[in-house]
Each structure stands twice: as structure tokens, then as C-alpha cells.
Amino acid sequence: MSSVSTIHGGSNKDLNTIVNSFIDKLKRREIEGSYFIALETLQFLKRFLSIARWNNINELITIIRQLGNKIEKAQPTAFACGNVIRRILASLRDEIEEEIRDEISTTSNVSNSTVAEPMISSMFNLLQKPEESKNILNKLNNTKSKTDFRQIAIQSIKDLIDEITNINDGIHQIAIDLIHDHEILLTPTPESKTVLKFLIKARERNNRKFSVLVTEGYPNNTSKAHEFAKKLASYNIDTTIIPDSAVFALMSRVGKVIIGTKGVFINGGAILSSSGVSSVCECAHEFKTPVFAVSGLYKLSPLYPYDVNKLMEYGGSDKIMSKMDPSNRLDTINPISDYVPPENIDIFITNIGGFAPSFIYRVAWDNYKQIDVNLEDKE
Amino acid sequence: MSEIQAKTPQESKEDAPGTSSTSQPSSDNTTKSDSGKKLSNKELKELKKQEKAAKRAAKKQANGITIEEQQKIALLKKEKKQQQRDQQLKQQKKEQEKKNQKNAIKTKAFKKNTLFGHLETTEERRATMLTLTGAFSASRASKVTAHGLVVPMVTNPISNTNVLTTTALGTPVPTPTVNQNDSSIETQSTAELARSLAAFALENDQFQIVQGMSSVIPNSIENNMKNSLLTTSVKELLLNKDLVHPAVISLTYQLSNYKIVGSIPRCIAMLEAFQIVINDYQTPQGTTLSRNLTNYLSHQIDILKKARPLSVTMGNAIRWLKQEISHIDPNMSDKVAKRELCDQIAQFAREKIELADQLILDNASNHIKDGTTILTYGSSKVLTEMIIHNVVDLKKDVKVVVVDSRPLFEGRKMATYLRSRGVDVMYALITSLNNVLKMPIDYVFLGAHSILSNGFLYSRAGTAMIAMSAKRRNIPVLVCCESLKFSQRVQLDSVTFNELADSNDLVNIDYENPIEKRGSQGALLKQFIKERTKEKEKIDLEINKQKGKQSNSNQSKNNGNNNNGNNSNDSTDQKNGESNNNNNNKNILDDWQDIPSLNIVNILYDLTPPEYIKKIITEFGALPPSSVPVILREYKGSV
Amino acid sequence: MTDFNITETYLKFLKDDSEMTMPIAAIEALVTLLRLKNPSTAAEMINTIKSAADELTKSIPNSISLRAGCDVFMRFVLKNTHLYGDWENCKKHLIENGQLFISRAKQSRKKIAKMGVDFISDDDIILIHGFSRAVFSLLTEASKNFVRFRCIVTESRPTNQGTQMYKALISNGIPATLIVDSAVGSILHRVNKVFVGAEGVAESGGVINLVGTYSIGVLAKNAGKPFYVISESHKFVRMFPLSPDDLPGVKDSLDFSLTNNNRHANVSALNEGMDDNEQNDILCGPIVDYTTQEYITALITDLGILTPSAVSEELIKMWYD
């Protein structure tokens, strides 16, 4: 944060307080669920930008990156934060590129051949002529830009909020075609609002009849699972609660497995906030039962899960075994999240379409800039 | 109030025989049990007749009207008129009326999952057990009456609390049999004993509750009996009920209450019960022991089946026993033959279970070296022994991961036991399987309920998932299993043949108290209380203040009951807050029975395909799953 | 100028700079050709390059890797001449910047090392097959970042790449052990991940690499171990082999004939002790194989961490843009 404060002298105290209070909120898990985390982050970013001061666009990008880095460091498993911040950065960078292009076309006609094809293919990088756009970008730093980047940033935040709040419709449109009448579905992620809304809509709007098996997700998600089941049943969906141990036994009868995700990585793997899902997906894989993941675009992360163990979150042992003989305590393990590798997921349904896990990388690059993957400043 | 109540049943009892003998053959059965023909009429009426008799008696007493009129009175409209005359009566009728209304609703409310429609649900099993109980207790009651004792044939529903207290006061009756738990039932084993202890038994007998219950069976359970198939099978059982040995009945209760669990303990308990049965057996005239005993045992087995489906071990043991019986020389005297059979049973248990376990243990120990990490699922007797043997006796440094699952939490017992013996234990739930398997696990050891002849492992639900995950991670899966558990049966998936456990076990989300194994009685009581409370509340609203007072006292009694029943009182009705205030742990799904499209499936077993299993360790040595039929062919003949 | 031999130039480039990979050498050779021939029309330039590339691929037995270089070069020239019409400019750029490409190629290896270093974590045991500069630079980068890991290097017969890799690792202070190729299956359960380089990356995302890669890929998949390919993006090549030996320029490498003199002479000596060279004479079979994409967890390239399908996207873009 120290480097941020050097950029904008006066208001840094206010900024520091709001940044820290937001981080505390995340750390204390006051915001639960990636949906709310994403929205809260955007709201926070809006406030942050209205207070923060900067001299040129590069500084703006730097402070957003620093903010993103700080949040990510503080709560590395709240992927939605980093995702939305990177989305905003990407839209800012798009704007800059636009501007550079304008600049070039107005000022210099000589160099247009060099920049006319900024990236034909990254493979050609090898044979490309040395880039000149960097110089232009530097030039841009010094001259006062015509574009109001604060406005652009705020606008893209608003757009993103709109997108996030409307994801369910998009997902529903695509996903409904994947369910047939009287199909038996299984969902091991009862905490997912996206799954719940999707199932209810499929029942109500399309009047599709289907049965849903809900696993309990003991010990962390059982009450959520029961509520989920009750809610589904209240919409006249044939719902059955099964213990986590019965998944294998029933998998042969299941038509599709639906999972809600917490974050989707660039390799097509997904992290979920319910333990036991990876085993369920493994079962499904073994039975060749399709697994489809419903996920908003904002959950897509440009990160690669190098070490899955680092992404896991663990809870206390009190939910596993609360009463233990103090002299003979047992070791327990209570993961509260789970990682499903791409080979166990058949398709991702997002609000902008359905994608195979192997294609997720492309969807990610459409929405993020490679340069922003690592928010840590190396310089 | 209590005075009246205490009186009513007695009066009704006295009157009942007279009334029924003159007009209604159905209630005849209550008193006369020796004739098979009349018994066959019992069926469903058994459930209601006592209550009816009570009412009729009460009505008759109050009105002095004829039998023909009584039948008319059964109509609801007329009952209402009478309510004004006798307060106690009125309340009963109200309940009856409500029950009738509810019957219509409840028929639909009772659910069967579409996937498991072919399997017997706990509710059905419970209903069967109740009917049988009713039959057994009724027969005994009649016997006692024959000896001039006044038996409270109908316990007034509201006086339920009284019944409970008497049971609590009950003193254990010394019995000649092995099983001490349900001693009172065994007390009744012989007619002489029954006579001598009749007065005694009446006060402390568990049957007393059951008898009371047969008149207050909750509507939903009553509805289960509408299943015609079930009725027929129950009917058959009732026909032969006098042939059933009390030791077997006692065992049936223990099994149905999950007091005895695990395929090996169940088998041992059954063999012990059979030893008693054989000891008490008298060959009827005109036949031989080797011919008739098998037949006699079949009756016992029929009733055992009603508690829970027979385990494979039980089935194998029965098959062996029948074979042994048929081999008995017809010229041998009964006494010698019986003693020989009992010896053989004891030897069978020793050979097939104790010695087999020892061999398995030795064989499996070869895999375990210093520093080995073992993963196991649930609780297995032979595995526990094996681990203890290796750690305590052989002083090997072994780490054990016990994976467990809801709702039975069998692994807790095993994990705490192992830990208390100094084993390095890690306890995890099946949902964290993926994380657990990331640790360096050397072997997965599994117990078995049964191994089918196509090599599939039939074991506690969740085993298949463990085996699959281990296989996918190239961790060898070993199954420790006595050859007694080998079954001739073939099966392809877990849905076709399975056992359904009580769905209510999944309702309670509690980390501290895993659901206590509940038998039909606890559940019955709860359900009864639930229904009763609801009705009472409605009655409360209707009855005027003066009468209301009395019903309040009733309710408070019911509340007391509630707490005795130790589990949550469930009611959707918001007005029930008053009666619920003692229950802080309300569960989300307490009212799941009332939501038509909500279901809870709690299956006990699943099927693990042979490709996940590296080897099966039996007393014959280790073998691949594909060799199961070989063992069955080679050794089953000699078993 | 007629005495210019593209093959010799290519081999000379490879010899002079041990750090240079085959595709780069091919590109450099073609640049040298352009400089010497200095074609006067676009058509002449294209024809010159085409015939030289053909000659080169034919004369070199293991041509997959250099084929990738020729492909990229050819495509770049075509694109510039056809699409933008300024072939002069393009030629000038190519001739002038020959050295730049080499440095960029080396740069891309550094980039790979930076990107892939996250794949190695403490206490890892990594299986390596063959000698690949990209793999080596990644491993040294990791060791520079104080990651403690160990390597198992296969012997990589019939080449001596395994020994080469082993020596290189040891001299860089990375703990390593050398095993025979046939031992892979038996030690794989102790390995955390597998790293291999690539001769070429095919359009499907599969890789063409030193023989044995395919077997290791299958084994790794079976054991559930991640299998990573480390390769520069200029090795992406427009090919779509269907089976492990379905590779252009690879003749049926199995020789069943009884008449092969060389072999005949040696068969009698089989029983007696003989050195490796003699054994190699009897050995036949391919020296490269193709590993299909389903065995590959991810490709670590200078373009980022790619899934196999991302590779085909790159190649599609190159040819259809």
C-alpha cells in the first residue's frame, strides 16, 4: 500500500481505511458466496475509484493492480474479487488500445504498416518486427488524455454489475436444452444459487418434469442441502435427499450431474465450495454420466491451478467430531472446498454459452488481458 | 381425569368379550387365539378392534343401547351428539373423526421412492412388526384372561404416560434364556412360566406398551398395511404365530431395533437363538425330528425376516443348519439329536467365524510393515482386530485413516477404539475422500457384508466410492472377509437389491449426537405423539373453557412424553410453539413427510464392482474377486 | 551462388550454436539463403524458399522440428506478400534481423522457464525423458528460485540424451538419478509429474518427441500423474498424425528381413558381450513417436500455459487468419 500512497498524497488515509475494512470483511467471511463477493468488490471498487487520485492512465492501472494484489493476497480463495478487478483492467486496457490506434491514425501515417496487425498470431512473434507501440504508450503517459478514464472505469463496473445480476437468465436458456423430461439429476452443490434458480426455472417456465437427487455434503453443507431440497420440493420438483455415501450406488440411475462452481480456472478445472464434489464427479466419470457445471462468466479466472492444495480451504474439526477424549484426540480433516479436474467435467454452461473445459482458456482470454494475470508488480 | 381413564379400559375389557361373542366375530379373535381359522380374520382389524371395543363398551355403558345401534353410532354425526353427555367420550370421538379425515390425506403422504419402490421401506417393516406384536400380545393377553386375570386390553391413548411409567418401574425378570434384554418376552416362553409370572409380567412387561400401541398405531403406519402383498404375508405369519419360539421373537425385536448390527453378530445371535429353539423343541407325534425340525425352523426364519432382510451370513448358516438336520439319523433319540445339533452350531460359529478371523488376520498382517498407512471405511470387526494385533502385539508403526459417513457413523466407534489402544488414527468423512487420498496411503482395507458370486462386494453404502477412488489412484484395495459371507447370488447394481434404512435418520443434522439407532417403538411413539398433539390442539380450540382445562392437563402430559421420547417434536403448525418450546434443535426437514415431492433415501449397502478390488483375504487365503465362485463350488458343499 | 547448400548451412548453424534449436536453424538457413540469393520478385522469393525448404526437409532424416521452422517462415512470407503486398519491406526485415530471431528464440525459453516455474513445488520428484533445452532451462530456473526438487532421468535410448541431461542436472546442483527406459513403469508411482520436451507440437495438441514419450504418456495417464510438455511455440507444426508412428518422413522402420547384412553379422555376436554401437546396429524402430493430446495435461509454452486445444487454435489462426 505504501506505493499507492505515494501516488496520491492527500486522500490515502481514507483509501487505506476503506481498503482495509473491505479486506477485513472478506477475511471474516462476512460476504459469502462468489456472487456476493463479486458484487461487493465491484461496489467497493466504484467507491475506491471515486476517492482515488491519479495523473495518467498508467497510474490508474497501477493503483487498481495494487489494490487487486492486496485483496488477492489477503483472501486468496475469494477468486471472484480478482476476477472482476481483472475484468475492469481489461476493459481499461481495451480503451487504451483504442486510443493508441486513434492516435496513430491521426498523427503518423508512416508507421501504420507496422501496427496495422498488432497480433496476427502470437506464433509470429518470433518473426515480428520490433514493437513500436510501447513508445506510443509511453508518449501517452506524458500527454493528458482526452478520454475520461474514471468515467470509463465506472461505466465498465456498472456494465459488469448488470452482467452478474442477470447471469441466471443466460444460463437457463442454454442449460434447459440439456435436460429431458423425467430425467434424474444429481447435484452435489446445494449451496449454489445458480443451480437452484436454474432448476426452478426449468420446472416453472418449461414445465419440465424431472427428479433431483441432492447429496448432503456432510458436515459443512448439510443444512444448506436440506433447505435446498425443501425449496425444490416446494416448487413441486420431485426431490430426494441422499447421504454422501449413496452416490456410487445411485449413479447408474442418474442422467446428469449438475454442479455449481465457485471459480473456474483456465485449464477447465473448477473449485467448489462444497467438499465431496470431486468424488461425485469421479463417480460420474466412471459411469460416463455427463457432468455439467453452471457458472457465471465472472467466476472464470485467468489463473492456472498450479498447486491445487494451495487453493483448498479447511474448516475446524468440531464439525467432524466435536467430543473427543482430550487425552486421545483424533486427527481429523475438514476441507470446505473441493477441486474438480477438467477431465471430470463435461461442459461449462455460462451466461454467454456452453463451453467444453478445453475451451475455457479462450473464453478467459477474451475477457482478461494476459498482462494482468499476475497482479504482483515485479518492477 | 386419570381416575376415569384408569377405569375405562378395565371396564371395556370386561365388557369386550361379551359384546363380541354375541355379535362380531372379528373381535372374537381378541380373546380366542387357539383356532387358526379365526385367526385368519384378524389382519387389519387387529389394529383397530381394541379401540373399537373400548368405544363400544363405553358407549354401551353410557347409553345402554343395543348392538345394532352401536354400529350406527359409529357414524360421526351421532357421535357428536353424545359428546355433550360425556366429556371423556367426546374427546375420543373427536380424535376418531380427525383420524378418519387424516386417513384420506395420509394415504397419499406415505411415500415410496420411485427408484426403490421394489424395496421394503422401514415404515412397512415397522407396520409389519406392529401387527405381529399386536397378535402376539393379544394371544398372551387372552391366555391370561383365561386364568381369571383382568387385563387392560385397551389402553386409552391419553393414558399413554401411565403406561410409560409402569414400564420404567419394571423389574427384570430372571429368565432361563441367553438374551437378557427382552427378558419378559421370554418369560412367556412356556405356558407354565406365563402362568406363574403373569401378574408380575403384566406390570413390567415391555409388551404392555406395545399392546397399548396396537390400539394407537399412527395413521400413517396403519396406511402401510393397505399394501395387499404385505397383508398377505403378515396374514400367513399370523396363522403360524403359535409356532414361533419366544427366543426368536426376542431376537426379531433386537434386530428390528438395530440392537444387534453387523452381519457376523447378527449371525451369531441367530445361531444362539436357534440353539435355544432346538433345546426347547419337542417333536410332535407321527413325525421325526429330521423332518419336522426344518419345517419348524422355517417358521422362526419367516418371522426373523420381518425384522430385517436376512444377512448373507444368516442365510448361509441357515442353509447349513437345515442340511445338518436332514442328515440326522431318524433313529437317533430326540435328546441326543438336539444336543448334537447344538454342539454342531457352536462348532460352526467357532470354525467359520472365530478361527476364520484369526486366519484372515494373520494373512492380512503380512501386508503391513513399519510405516504403512492404511485407509479403512466404516467399522469392521476383523479389521479392528487386525490393526490392534499389528500395532499392539507386533509393535508395528501403522497409521490408520478411518473414513466415515452419515448417518450411521460406525467409523467413530472404530476410530476412538483404535485411538484408545494407541493407534495413530486419522478420522475423516467420506466427503473429504479426495483430500485424504492425496496423502500417501499404502492400502485400502475394507470389510464386507457379503461377496457375491460374480465377484461384487456388497457392503456398507460408500464402500464402492472408496474402492473406486483408490483404484483410480492406484492404491490397492483389499477386502477382508470370512468365506461364510460368500453368496451364491449375483447382482449387477446397488439399486436392484438393497436394504432401506429409516429415512428419519437423515433428518437430524447434529454433529455431536449421531442419531441413536432407533427401533420402531421410539419412532412410533414420536409419530403417535405428533399426531396426537396436533389433534389435541385442534380440540383445544373447539372445547369450551371448562373442558379446556382438562385437555390442557392432557397436553402437559403429552409434553412430558415428548421429552421422554428424547427427540424433536415435529409439527408444521406454528401454533405448536408451546409444545415445542422444549426442543431447541429443530431440524429443517422435520416435516418432510408432509411435503409430497420431498423424499429421503437412506440405503444401507452398495455394490463394488470386482475391478476395483485387488484381492479378497479369506480363511482360505487370498484370492482375486474372480475366484469367488471357485470357493463357492469347492467348499460350500462341505460347509 | 549456386554452390550454396541449404542443408549444410542448416547443419552448420546447429553445430556452431549448441543452444540453437532446429526450427530456428532452419529459419536462419532460409534467411541466409535470402540474403545470398536476394530474389528480385515476390514470386521468385517464394519459390526459392519453397524449394529450399523441400530440399532441407528431404535431406535431414528427422525433419519434424525443422519443418515447423520452415512452416512459420513460409507462412510469414506468404502473409506479408499476399496480404500486404510489401514483400520488399518484408525481405528487408527478414534479412536485416536474422540475429534477432535467434535471440528471441532464446528469450522465449526464458519466458517458458518463468511461466513454468510454478509447476514445480518443493519435494517434487520429476520424471524427465530426453534432453530438451526448454525443460532444462525450466529446471535450472526452478533451482535458482530455491525450489527443492529431484529428477528421475530416463536413459532415453537409443540416444544418449538421458546421460546428457543427467550430467547437466548434476552439474547444476539438481539431484538426479538415471534409470533405464524400461523402468519407467515401475517407478512411476513415486513420481509427482512428468516433463518432456518436444520435437514438434502437432495440430491436435499432441507432441512429437523422442521415442518412448508415448509410452511414458500412457503410463502417466494410467497412474494419474500430470504429464507436461515444455516447448517453444515455434515448434508448433501443421501435422495431424493418427498413430504414434504416423509421421511424415518416417519410413516403415521395422526391418524383418533376414538378408540385412549388417544385422546378420551381428546376430551371431549377440550372445557374446558386445558394445552399444554394435547393438545399435541391430536395433531398428523409430526414433521419434507421437503422443496424442489425451495424454497431455498441459503444454508450457512461451504463449502461456496451453491446453492441447489451444495449440490447434494457434495453428488455425496462423493459417486461416
Automatic annotation (TrEMBL), chain A:
One GO CC term on file: cytosol
Keyword list, A-Z: Cytoplasm, Initiation factor, Protein biosynthesis
Record carries keyword Cytoplasm: yes
Keyword Acyltransferase: no
Alphabetized GO MF terms: guanyl-nucleotide exchange factor activity; translation initiation factor activity
Organism superkingdom: Eukaryota
PANTHER family: TRANSLATION INITIATION FACTOR EIF-2B SUBUNIT BETA (PTHR45859:SF1)
Subunit structure: Component of the translation initiation factor 2B (eIF2B) complex which is a heterodecamer of two sets of five different subunits: alpha, beta, gamma, delta and epsilon. Subunits alpha, beta and delta comprise a regulatory subcomplex and subunits epsilon and gamma comprise a catalytic subcomplex. Within the complex, the hexameric regulatory complex resides at the center, with the two heterodimeric catalytic subcomplexes bound on opposite sides.
Protein name: Translation initiation factor eIF2B subunit beta
UniProtKB/TrEMBL annotation, chain B:
Short name of any one Pfam family annotated for the protein: IF-2B
GO cellular component terms given for this protein: cytosol; eukaryotic translation initiation factor 2B complex
Gene3D superfamilies: translation initiation factor eif-2b, domain 1 (1.20.120.420), Translation initiation factor eif-2b, domain 2 (3.40.50.10470)
Region (Disordered): 1-109, 539-590
Keywords, in A-Z order: Cytoplasm, Initiation factor, Protein biosynthesis
Molecular-function annotations in GO: guanyl-nucleotide exchange factor activity; translation initiation factor activity
Keyword Cytoplasm among record annotations: yes
InterPro entries according to UniProt: EF_Hand_1_Ca_BS, IF-2B-related, IF_2B-like_C, M1Pi_N, NagB/RpiA_transferase-like
Gene Ontology terms describing biological process: regulation of translational initiation
Main subcellular location: cytoplasm
Subunit field text: Component of the translation initiation factor 2B (eIF2B) complex which is a heterodecamer of two sets of five different subunits: alpha, beta, gamma, delta and epsilon. Subunits alpha, beta and delta comprise a regulatory subcomplex and subunits epsilon and gamma comprise a catalytic subcomplex. Within the complex, the hexameric regulatory complex resides at the center, with the two heterodimeric catalytic subcomplexes bound on opposite sides.
Name by which UniProt lists this protein: Translation initiation factor eIF2B subunit delta
Basic and acidic residues: bias regions: 34-54, 81-100
PROSITE patterns: EF_HAND_1 (PS00018)
Domain of life: Eukaryota
Low complexity bias locations: 549-569
Polar residues composition-biased segments: 18-33
Family affiliation: Belongs to the eIF-2B alpha/beta/delta subunits family.
Keyword Cytoplasm: yes
Location of the protein in the cell: Cytoplasm, Cytosol
TrEMBL record, chain C:
Biological process according to GO: cytoplasmic translational initiation; negative regulation of TORC1 signaling; positive regulation of cellular response to amino acid starvation; positive regulation of cellular response to heat; positive regulation of translational initiation
The keyword Isomerase is annotated on this UniProt entry: no
Localisation per UniProt entry: Cytoplasm, Cytosol
Protein origin, superkingdom: Eukaryota
InterPro entries linked: eIF2B_alpha/beta/delta, elF-2B_alpha_N, IF-2B-related, IF_2B-like_C, NagB/RpiA_transferase-like
Family named by the database record: Belongs to the eIF-2B alpha/beta/delta subunits family.
Protein name in UniProt: Translation initiation factor eIF2B subunit alpha
